[in-house]
Structures are given as structure tokens and as C-alpha cells.
Amino acid sequence: MKSYEVNFDGLVGPTHNYGGLSYGNVASQSNSQQSSNPKEAALQGLAKMKALMDMGFQQGVLAPQERPDIAALRRLGFAGSDAEVIQQAAKEAMPLLVASCSASSMWVANAATVSPSADTADGRVHFTAANLNCKYHRSIEHPTTSRVLAAMFADSKHFAHHSALPAVAQFGDEGAANHTRFCRAYGEAGVEFFVFGRSAFDTRYPAPQRYPARQTLEASRAVARLHGLKEEGVVYAQQNPSVIDQGVFHNDVIAVGNGEVLFYHEDAFLETDKMLAELTSKLAKVGGKFQAVCVPRSAVTVDDAVRSYLFNSQLLSRADGSMLLIVPEECRSNERVWQYLQSLTGSGGVIREVKVFDLKQSMQNGGGPACLRLRVALNETELAAVNPGVIMTAPLYESLTQWVERHYRDRMTENDLADPQLLLECRAALDELTQILKLGAVYPFQIN
User: What's the confidence (pLDDT) of residue 362?
Assistant: First the structure.
């Protein structure tokens, strides 16, 4: 039976704005308060989805969230009609209104952690929605994320869904941005690689001093238990605290893996040799041959990696066994990074080609190609059980492009977020979107 890695990309929401909400994310903070372009952002994301589909990769789409989140504002004491809630928040607590309008759910690498059926005890694909507890604007996402994922992967014979972990610091969970799976083939048993920034209870693990470590070891272990993973099929590794303090807020900013290959920066991890040995040994036991591609700090600094998002890339397997690296335009703009990529692809190694995409709107808010996609390994039967409305096709691309053109603004500032009309526009857009994607009622305004 054939198996696939399907990339489900997040569709950028109508309220895409540069609120500077993500402390520890250099791009998010440095572009705070600039004017954004939601229409351009959504179209850039759709263009990447269409391009990968045209290259023969399986591609899906994951819907954005309802924003502004009126229910979240009501829980914080704002009252009256929806318009009055928005106006009161804008007058009394603008940062809370900005947080309630964030389109950060576009970065669906943080939506959930996914384990394929070949790894799990019950032979189903398991999803655990991430609690994203480190940042308020993201912590309000997981209820809708869970409903959307359940509407996409609805067949309980093939798919199992778990609620987000407890919303406390000890179980901070950032989803697939800190999770990678290595395997010989997507339908075969593999090794799941969980990267954490700190331990909540074990003081032997060092912690960063400047920026928060968002993923805990305890959260990673809990997800592995929920998914029924065997100990011999899991490796845990700690992110280097010093790179977190340099702006590497998730592991996918400093490393990316796929198939049998890990592409990583020399300074990405602690106890790197021990980690590589464990990955090599465990993958060999399921028939795989682990390959590590290390980028030396002498060629690319951590600062280069953060500013270019070299590692926040998509590493895609092609039929001939080689790999394609999808990177943002910022990699070509960085002389050292681009020089390294030219030498990498010309070396005869496993990564043979680099393709560049313009994702400026997402990049300026702190997310690159890897942030925009959630990877789900599926066999033919499981893929057939996925809601077909969310699988990218040429007609769906055209429908979504026209939908964006109808509903999205081409300019968004903080002042625009205070306009009650924006909520009505967002709800009208999302109501139509759920029909296009055949999701049913997944948003609070559709349910309540």
C-alpha cells in the first residue's frame, strides 16, 4: 500500500496583522506595528500550496480561526454587544484587542503533534492539539483547532483526537514545530523525535536566560504516551538554551528533518553526538539508515539562520530518493546562507535542489515555510478517509483565490482592528469558507 506525507498548510486569516505579540521571535518583534497586507499574505500562502501540488506532492489546507475572538474578550470582562466589546477593548486595553485579532493560527506547525498509524499502539493516526500556553494570543487557539482537525479527519476508525494538555507552564506544548519523524518509508514504523527547551521538574536540564523555552520535556513525554508510542520508537533531545536566547523560539527555526535525513545547525542541540547515535541506532532497528546534514557555524551563524529562516524550510522527498528544500526569499537575500545552499546542492549529497518562495507577509510576522504546514503521514486508505474538501486541487485553488479576493483587505493596521465591521467581514468570509472546504460548523459564531 502506498503512503504519503501530506502537507496541510495554514490559510492566512483576514485579520493578519503585525502586532509584535511573540516575545522571543525576532521577526515578530522587529516588525511590530507596521502595516500588513492580509490579502497578499493569503495569496502568497496559496501560491506555495499550488506550486507544491503542481510538483506532485500531496497538499491540503487548514482553515484559519475566527478573529477577533469576542468570547476571549468577554472572559476578560468586556461586555455588551460584539461591537461594544471591540470598542471597549480598543479604548481600555488595546494590547488585548490586538491579541484577540492575531492571525497566528496560520502557522499550523503549532496546531498539533501528529503520529502516523505505523507508530501507534492502536494503528490509528493520532492528533494532539497544542496548548500553546506560552503566549496568550496563541493559547486561545486550541478549541477551534481541535474542531477543525476533527472535521478534516473525522473517521474514528482511522483517526484519534486528543485534547490539548493542561494549560499550565509545566506542560507547555508547541506542537509539531518541535517534533519530527524519521522513517525509511512513510507507511513503515519510524522514530519520532521530540525536542524540548526545558524540563519543568528536572533541574539537571539547563534553561535559557533571556527568552522563554516554550516546549517542556514533560509535555513531549505526555504526547508520546497519549499516542501510544513505544520507547524504542522515540528520541528526546534538548534544544541548546543559548540558541533560544538568540531567537530560536522553536526547533524548526534551527533544524528540519524528513525521511531518513536531519538537516540542522551545529549549535542546535545539547549532547548532539549522543542524540545522533540514538537516532541512528533506533532508526536502524526499523530498517532505516539515518543521515545527518550539519551546517557548520563557520558557514552560517545562528543569527544568519534566524534572519533568513534557512531551517524553517520544507524538506521534501522525491521519487528518485533525493530531497528538495523549500526556503523563503530571505535565504537568497542573505549572502552567506545562499552561498552555503549553492555548495550544499552542488555537493552530490541527498539535498539536491532548493526552491525559493516569496512569503514576505508571513516572514515579517515570524513564520516561514515550515511554520505554515502541518505534516500528516497517511497510507492510501487513510488519505481516502480524509475530508476531500481540504485536499488541494486546481479547482479548490481557484475557489480559494477568488474567496480571498472577495473578502480580504489589502491593508491592516492596529487602528483597523478596532473597527467592528472587521468582525462581520471575518465571519462572512469564514462562513463561506466552511462551505468551500466542507467543514460544517466549526466556528463559535456558527455553533452558539
Answer: 86
pTM: 0.95
Which residue out of 66, 174, 192, 414 is catalytically annotated? 174
Tell me the per-residue pLDDT of 232-278, one tens digit each, with 9 for 90 and over: 999 999 999 999 999 998 999 999 999 999 999 999 999 999 999 99
Cα radius of gyration rounded to whole Å, the chain = 21
Distance from C-alpha of 386 to C-alpha of 243, rounded to nearest angstrom: 38
SS3 content of the chain, % helix, strand, coil (to 5): 40, 20, 40
C-alpha closest to that of 390 among 74, 50, 28, 61: 61
Active-site residue among 101, 183, 331, 371? 371
Per-residue confidence (pLDDT) for residue 19, from 0 to 100: 60
Is 405 one of the annotated active-site residues of the chain? no
Q: Active site includes 371? A: yes
User: In the prediction, which pLDDT does 29 show?
Assistant: 45
Amino acid at 42: A
At residue 343 the predicted structure's pLDDT band, cuts being 50, 70 and 90, is very high
In what side-by-side order are the strands of the sheet with 261-265?
255-258, 261-265, 291-295
